[in-house]
Each structure stands twice: as structure tokens, then as C-alpha cells.
Amino acid sequence: MEKENATPNPRRDFLKKSSLITAVALTPTAAIKAADNQLDERIAQAIENVPCSIEINGTKHTMKIDPRITLLDLLRERLHLTGTKKGCDYGQCGACTVHVDGQRVNSCLTLAVMNDGKKVTTIEGLANGSELHPMQAAFIKHDGFQCGYCTPGQIMSAVACIREGHADNEGEIREFMSGNICRCGAYPNIVAAIQEVKKGGKNI
Amino acid sequence: MNTFFKADEPLQRVDGKMKVTGAAKYAAEYVLPDCRYAVLVTSSIAKGRIKSLDTKAASNAPGVIAVISYLNAIRPPGYAADNEHPTEPATGGQPHRVFYDNKVYFNGQPIAMVVADTFERATYAAHLVKAQYIVEEHLTDLNKNLDKGVLPASAKKNPKSPLADYDRGVVDGYKTAPVKLEMEYEHPAEMHNPMELQAIVAHWETDDKLTLYDKVQGTQPTQQNFAKEWKLPPENVKVIAPFVGGAFGNALHNWPHETAAIIAAKMIKKPVKLMLTREQMFFMVGYRPGTFQRIGIGANRDGKLVGISHFSIGQTSSYEEFTESVLQQTRMMYTAPNVSTRYRILPMDVSTPIWMRGPGEATGAFALESALDEIAYELNIDPLELRIINHTDQDPERNMPWSTKYLKECFKLGAEAIGWNKRPLKAGTLSDGPWKIGYGMAVGTFGANRRSAKVRAKLFANGSLLLQSAVTDIGPGTGTAMVGIATDAIGIPADQITFQLGNSEFPVAGNQGGSSTVNSVGSAVLAVCDVLKQKLLEMANQNMPEFKSATLEQVTFSNGGLQLKGGSAKTTIGDLMKKSGSADLDLIEEAKPGPEAAKYSKYSYSVHFVEVRVHSITGRIQVTKAVTCADAGKIINMKTAGNQMIGGVTGGIGMALTEDAVMDHRFGRYMTKDLADYHVPVHADVPHIEVRFVDKPDYIVDPMGTKGIGEIAIIGVAPAIANAIFNATGKRIRQLPITPDKLI
Amino acid sequence: MKQFQYIRSVSQKAAISAITQEPKAKFVAGGTNLLDLMKRHVMTPERLVDINKLPLRDIKEENKGLHIGALALNSTVAEHATIVKKFPLLAEALNAGASAQLRNMATVGGNLMQRTRCPYFYDTTTPCNKREPGTGCSALNGFNRMHAIFGATPHCIAVNPSDMNVALIALDASVQVSGPKGDRIIKMQDFHRLPGDQPEKDTILDKNELITAVTIPASTLTHNHYLKVRDRNSYAFALVSVAAGLNLDGKTIKVARLAMGGVAHKPWRLTAAEQSLQGKQVSIEAFQQAADIAMQGAKGYGHNDFKLKLAPNTIVEALKIASRI
């Protein structure tokens, strides 16, 4: 417990522990002092931030980041790839669905640093230049959305659903798309779009 | 009259490409230099006062710029003072004033806010703020306090208010009928839960100029609210919302987090972004109020209704009165000579509700349309037949003619499509192995509303047209509908027309709500196109000899040009403007409802038919088929309109079967407050849904003949499902949601 | 989220060492439950040891049984040809859980360690013995629709939320773990614990132990079904679920395996009910009798009273579907 009159400082406690195990040319006392006096934010961040390198839509990003940043927030807030949406932040809606090494995942429930060395595809990376991906075109054709907020997640999920081989019939599509909530309720149109792409037989 | 939109080739959404590529930008996605992140700290008690607020740890946490609470927040100059006469309760109350004082009015109320350089740091520091309270006893349980309901302030003041007590014929006349039933219906609070979390970026461009990127259903209503709150001229407040990730009513009100972000931006002199968490969405941005209803219904043996008495009580907050139109359908839908309605509200220690899709009407229809079904079984009359028996050709409430009413056509369309003749007359008799099968139907109605609106048109020398309106699009496809109306009116190809919306600087439009957008803004689009056509004709009269004496009636506007009817003379708009040496045309037109409209009762109608399967052992419920039919006037775009109907049925499946905001009244706090615990329908819950439109215009409502779709799409769905479940199982469930446990 | 040290481990030894050094350290693999809990400050580890780079992903047949590496993804296991063919209960249970995206992230080891979904456990403003020992159980007299009917104590009436665990216990699986004191094998039956007066402990795993694999012995079950009843048709936790496996010789039940989810603090094996079925002919009566036996000692807490009926119904239905009668 902190003493009554001591000013609580969570960063101080954190740095004290961290600097003991981090390869920073700084004694724990010096690190704490730096933080206490807010003398050098960079020194503190050198301890707090973690290096990582992720390929996103074909571009490699090498960064040192706060390990608390989720992949979703990295995309939206750091890289301004806002096509990936935050709908719940707890893996309960699917709006944040992206592909990591080809697999659909909820980007809100994975730390960015856990994706070091991986390849991420977001909705911005799905189309081939100005040519829409067949799933994007099918969503427009079948009106598979209204407000559009769940749409990038639905589309990323739908592409994976076909690639996984889970789009053989309406029932299977519905089951394997249930991780993507559409509150506007365009579900039947989304299912129709997926069926059309599946029937098109193209290698997506 | 105009012959409106070619329904067989509906336009694809004009913003579809932006939505499927991730290019569409929602409130939290605007990047402003130097923007900081704000995160709210909320109360953990439902009523009381904050005794102390420890912000030291939060202030010391890395990256924190400010910790703001009632202790240090600047106060918006427009905050209304406390009621000056505490003995007289405020009429209507006022929105919650965030960080105003140390009072706690509801659990989950914002009590502090941390502003930091990153989202992660702000979020963490927010958890370090600790409050101590002086706790007061709270009231949050509607069902235990039904006797404490009050008449809304507006009804007290005006006995003719639609919320006032209403009697037609004899009070409780249903009691004299040979066949009569009395029932109670309930549904819990339901949360809008749009997929986009409520979010705002607040930016003071100068000391007295505010720009908001905000999730709202009306840019100008929001502009007005915040201009008032900050005592600014409205033109100093700019609200940007071209994309809104669903709302379903919850952005028809401005909420505490918006003011909080504005306060923070003012205090730190930098733009501030604030996005609510999904949990916070359950506490401070409105909800469909939990409602208890009692119905007495009586009929003669031949099915003629003798009377209906309908009582409803819903929850509201202690500081702001919320009302909705629960009992309208009971007063106007059927011929019953004796109808009594009583509407009450109960102020409690909860946050203020707000209209949720098909608002009160969906609530009322659940009780009324379930009751109709119940008495149909009692009378041994097909419930569809019962509705036809009691069909009325004029409004029995106002004794006025309907503008249009094609309800019977909806009955016919729907009954055919669902195969109503397969429905067993006796409940619980049709099954497939362990699955019980049943069919149900119910009716919905909602006022065909229209407001005045203005649209700006810029016609360019290349023949392209730009239209602008302050209206928002929360999903129905407003831009698409407007482009459709314009292309049909002026003959410029749709891909040459741009409709810009979601900016308070554009011409006047109200909230997107109450199924009124197309009726209102569409009329203005039509009006501005009419003026453009007149101007183009004048140009042709003056500059093209062949058109010298042509009148509007003699000219066709199509393919981006003008052509003399029955002649070969034609010109493109671009050529005409060049020939005339005309600059770009730029004008604003207003359209408002005329006096003729007041002579009629104007409603949209829907009839929903569903087939359900209920597992007799596990209680699992599956809606296996749905047919939704609407008399919504002329349909501008079959594709987007059909999508809205499908969406309404999906929302109704949630209302009927899954959605339940459970409050633990010991804490006055919701316990199902994320999307894992509060179940909205998923793909697996929603079958193929067939949509049928009568598609006949109602020119009393507006010159396109539209009546409105968004609300009727959900009104009546929940009772249709409850009725189908009864048909399948013989179990009448009057408490929503109908979950498996209620059927085993 | 509270600040934490993030360490990527490349070897099992380094991972165990990294977790042993810090009393408030946690392993992270898929992260689907841990990050959720960290965001809500229900769990506040000071160090995360990322084990994703450890070579623990293999799925292989071993002595006709199965070895599943702890880092095998739920989706990989559910789709694995051998598992679909020989251990369909496991595949069905996995596919009944969460969503396709989450199954692509969640690992077998993480699923074993999944914590309860009790809303009071998740809400740091309410008392909860599991989250903060000694504060009391809010669910006991509160909103307990999802809660236990077996093995609960006044200290905690939460349930284990996993579907996979229900199948694993029915299949007599074991959990292989490795820790600073060496390796050990824990039977699935013993892995999760009842709340007793220490509901903060979900399992008997030591803090510094790492799950390395799950093994399943050869299965003789010829007829299987995993039946999950929930509040919507997908993507919801179980009200009640039943894993039913039978070895049938004609109509005679030679072996029966039954386990339930959504009813206790641990996956709930129905041993007595299994025994009652042994040697019997398949029939609704026999199934009903087994269900009655299974329900002995069940207790409702109000909102969850319906489970006293739903649970036996689901047992009967699962057996019915499994045996195809």
C-alpha cells in the first residue's frame, strides 16, 4: 500500500519493475527519476514500448509501440486504416474482422505486438486497385448492408467463409457468418451475396 | 401526376462503393491534428451524491492531460439552472447536465473524464479515478411500482394531447361483450445497439466556433442544441455526419458524452475524440423503455369488436420526461365502438429512454395484436379474418378519411406468400418430429409524417447536378432515394447526380426519424428539380428556335437533356447551358406540407406473417419463414426499401425472441450490457424474408406519393412471432423476450 | 488496460522461467478471453508471456488416441480430418462455441483456461468472490439465469462457459502440463474444480505451469451428438449443453458417455447416468431414467430454475439424436 501522503504513481511502479528486466542502459533509479520528473518521456517510452513489424496490405510497418494497443486500434488510430470498425471491442460483433496470415480474426482481441511478423489484410487491401473484389461487388449488387458499419467485417468474414469451405448452403453460411452482427438486419442479402460469389466459382 | 420510380430497375446505393471498400468515414474516423482521446468514468450507484473523487493517480498516469469532473469542468453557459421552485416538479425536465454537480441520477452516469495523448493511456487512467458516494435509495423496478405511474406533463396541460386519457363510447365497454378477455403484457428495456458506437470528435476552431464530427440523426437539430448549450449563434456550430453507423433512434437526442467531449476540447484547447464503450452504450444513450400493458378486449360471437381498453406504463428518468405513442394503433386500427386508452409513465432513477425503431407503436402493437389473436382463438375465427371483420374505412379516432389505406391488399399479398391456408386452426397440432410448427400474423401502422425541408441544387455547365441537404443517412439509403427522385424528375442520369448530406451547413432538414425523410426531403428534391426544369425551359425558349414556344407539358426531360414531345428537336442540358451562356445554376427550394393534408388521417401500414418451429423438448425457437407486406405508398427504390423491411423484421425477431436488458435492481445496474449477454439476432436467427409492397402512391402525403417505411417494418413483428409460437405450441407468452425456457 | 511487460517466449523453458519470475504474470496465446478481461480490468497481469511461438501446435494420432498441442487453434481442431471422423463430439462441441473468427484465434490450452461469463465477475463495480475473494457472490440472489445447478456453493454459482471442455471430459481426455517442478498429466475430470470456498481458482493448475497438450484415448463411441441449447441460434453461451456418446451393438448400449455444460463450475460428467445406460437397450425410457439419475442433487437459484427441466430434456434429446431413434 502507498503511504497516505505519497502521490500514487502507477507509472513509477511499472518502470521500477520493468527496468529491472529490460535491456535499457539505465538504472532503475534513473528510469524512475526520469518518469517522476517527466524529464524525458522518450526514456520512459523506451522501456514501455515494444518493437514489432507487421505487413499490412502489402506494406511492412516496423514500429515500437505500447503493447496494450490492439491490432484494431493500431489500424484505426495509428495507421488511419479506419475501414476496420470497432463495434464492441470484446470480440462479440465481428465488425473488426481482418485476415491475419489469411485467417479471419477479430482484430480487437489480439494485441498488435502479438502479430509481429504476420501479414494482415484489411478491407482497404481487398480490392485489386480500383477493381472491386467479387465479394464487394456482390454486396453492392445484393444490397448486403444499410448503414455500412458492419460491412467491412462482413465482407472480410464472407471471403474467409468461402475460402474455408463453409459456404455450401444457406444454413452453413448463416452458421459460419454468425460472428458478424448486422444490426440493420441485412442478413438475407448478405447470404445472397455470399452464395452468388460461391456459385461464381472464382478463386477468391 | 408524376409517374415515379421505375421499380423494376432500382438504383444501386450511390455510396455503396465507399461502404464496401472502407472509404466511408464515420464520426470517430476524422483525423484532426493534435487530437486527444477522452474516456468517461461512470458512476457505480444509481442515486446519491459523490462524496469524494480521487483523481490523483489518474492525473499522474502517463500521457494524461486532464482529469475533468464536476470539480473542475467548465460549465456550458447554456446549462439550465436547477428548478427554481423545488416544490413544483419540472414539466418535462431537462437533459442530463454532465459534470454539473455531484448528484448521481442513474447508474453508469458519467462522473469524470480522462483526456490523454493515446486511447490506451486515457482508458487506463480512467480506471484509476475512484469515487466515494453518499448513497440514496433508488427506484428502478417498473414492475414493482406500477401504481406510481403519472400522466405526462403534456397531457396534463392539454387534454387533447395524444398522450391524454382517451375514451370512445362507453368506458371499458369491452366488459359488456359476450366474449371478453383481459391480459397483461410486458417487455423489458431494449437497447438500440447500433453497430457504430456513439462517437464524437469535438473541435473548437476558435473560441466561439465549434465543429463536431458526431454520430447524430440530425445535423441541424444537433447544431441548435449545442448552440443553445454554449450560447453561440447556430452558424458558429458546424455538425458533420455524412455516414452514421446505424442509430435506430438513439441519435435523435444529444447525450452527456457529446457535451463532455466539447467541454474537454474547450479546456485543453485541442480537438478531442470520445467513443463510448459498448457497455457505456447501455447506460447513457437511450433505450426502448421497459413497458407494462394491460388490455381488456371484448367481441360479439360474429367477431365484431365491442371494445378495447388499453393501459400502458413505461419508464422514464427522474430528470427528463420521455413519452412515446404506445396506444395510437388501439385507437385507430379497428372499428370497436368503445375504446379507452390510458398512458402513464414512471420516473425512476435510470437514464432517459429514447425512441427506438417503431418506437411506442411497436410496444403497443405487441399487446394489441397479441390480444386480437387471443380473442380470435376464443371466437374460433381466423385471426386474419377477424382483422378484416373489424377493418375500418375511416379513422374512428379523428372521424376523418384516410389519405390512402391498402391494408386489405397487404393481407392478400402476405397470406398468399406465406401459405396462410396451411395454418392449423387449432394451436399445437402441426409438427415435424420434435418440432412444432405454427403460423402467425400481425398488423403495424405508423403515421405518414412529413416536415418542411429545403434542398440546394447546383446544375453545372457539364450537365451534372449536385444536391445538398443537411439530412443524415443512418442506413436506409437516403442519398440513393434522393438521386432516384431527382433522376426521375429531371432526367439527368443517376451517375451525373450527387446528393450530399450530413452537414449542418447544407439546407434545412430535420432529424432522420419517424419514417419521414423521403416524404420531407424528397419533396424538396422534387421542388428544386421543378424549378430547374422551368429555368432550363426558359433557356430553351430564348436560345433554341425549335423550343421557342414550348411549355413544360410539351417537353420531355430525359437522358440529361430536353426533347420536344412528338418532335425531333432535342438538346443536352450541357449544350443548352453553353448555348445560353448560362453560369452554373445554384438555387435552394423549400417544400412543406400543404393545407390539404390536414383533412386526412395519414398512415403507413404493414402486415407481417411468420412461420416458426419450436422444439418441443428443448424449447429452441426458429423463425423459418417471414413475409412482410407494406402499404407504404409509392416505393422509390425497391431494393433499399425492401432491405429496410427485412431489417425491421430482423429487429422484430430480436424484440420477440432475444433482446433483454436485465437490470439488477439491488444495484440499479444493467447486467446484460454487452453483445454477448444482450442478444441481438445473428445470421443464424434470420430466415429468408420475402417483402411485398402494395406500391400505390398517396399524393396527400407528398408529391411522390410515399408514406414511410422504417417504422412499420418492425411494428407488429413481435406479436406476429408470439402469435405463431402460440399456433405452434398452444403456449401464450405475454412477456418478451420469448426464450427457450418459457416453452419447455 | 493496465500497463504490463510483454515478453515473447521462443522456448518452453524460457516461457516457464518468465512466468515464474513475476507473481502477476500470465501466459497469453489466443488472448480472446484474457484481453477481454484485461480491457475490463477484471484481470490485471503485470507481465504477459506470449507463447505463440512455442512449437505446441501439432495434432497427431497416438496409440489410436489423439495428441493435440496446446496451441492448436479451435478451428484447426474442429476441422481436423481424424477428429471429425473419430472424435466427432469434440469437433461438434468446438463448432458450437463462439464464432468462426474467435475459433481461429482461441487455442485448446486457452479454451481450457477460459473463465466464467458470470456478469458479476465481469462487472468490477459489483461484489464477486471469484474476482475479489471475500466480497460475496452477487449472482446467488441476483441475475443467475446462466448459472450453476450442480456443485455450487454460497461462495460462487458461476459456470464454466466452454463447449470444448464438455466434449473433452466425456472423451476421458487428459491435460499435459509442464512447470518449474517438471511435467505432469492431469485427468480432465480433475483439471477444473468446483468453487468450494475458493472460487477464484478455476482449475488445479499451478500459476507457473504451462499446458502443453491435451490427449484423448482411443474412442469406441459409435454414436455421438453434442447438443447445445442457447438464447439465440448461434454465437451464444449455453443455457445447457450435452455431449452424448454411445457405443451401440445393435440396440444395446455397450458404453455410454455423458457430460453437461452450462450447469456447473466445471464441465459436468454424468457418471451415474452413464452407468445406468450400460447394457440397456436404447429407448426413450432408458434415456429418461438416465436423465433423472443425472439430475439428482441439482438445485436452482431462481432465474435458472428452468435448467432443472431443460437439462434432463436436453440429455434425453441428445441421446435420442446420437442413437438415431
User: What is the CATH architecture assignment of the largest domain in chain B?
Assistant: 2-Layer Sandwich
CATH fold type of the largest domain in chain B: Aldehyde Oxidoreductase, domain 4
Helical proportion of chain B? 10-25%
| Total beta strands of chain C | 12
End-to-end CA span of chain C:
52 Å
Mean pLDDT over the residues of chain C: 98
Task: Give Rg of chain C in angstroms.
Answer: 19 Å
Largest sheet of chain B: 7 strands, mixed
> For the report, how would you describe the main beta sheet of chain C?
5 strands, antiparallel
Strand order of the largest sheet of chain B: 3-5-1-12-9-10-11
Number of alpha- plus pi-helical segments of chain C: 13
What would the CATH topology of the domain at 223-323 in chain C be? Enolase-like, domain 1
Q: Count helical runs of chain B.
A: 16
- The CATH class of the domain at 223-323 in chain C is identified as Alpha Beta
Please state the structural category of chain C. Answer: alpha+beta
Structural class of chain B: alpha+beta
Organism (chain B): Pedobacter quisquiliarum
Protein name (chain B): Acylaldehyde oxidase
Domain Aldehyde oxidase/xanthine dehydrogenase a/b hammerhead (chain B): 21-137
InterPro entries (chain B): Ald_Oxase/Xan_DH_a/b, Ald_Oxase/Xan_DH_a/b_sf, Ald_Oxase/xanthine_DH-like, AldOxase/xan_DH_MoCoBD1, AldOxase/xan_DH_MoCoBD2, AldOxase/xan_DH_Mopterin-bd_sf
Task: Please describe the structure with a list of short key phrases separated by commas or semicolons.
heterotrimer, A: 204 residues, alpha+beta, Ubiquitin-like (UB roll), DNA polymerase, domain 1, 3 domains, 8 helices, disordered N terminus, C: 325 residues, Uridine Diphospho-n-acetylenolpyruvylglucosamine Reductase, domain 2, Enolase-like, domain 1, five-stranded antiparallel sheet, 30% helix
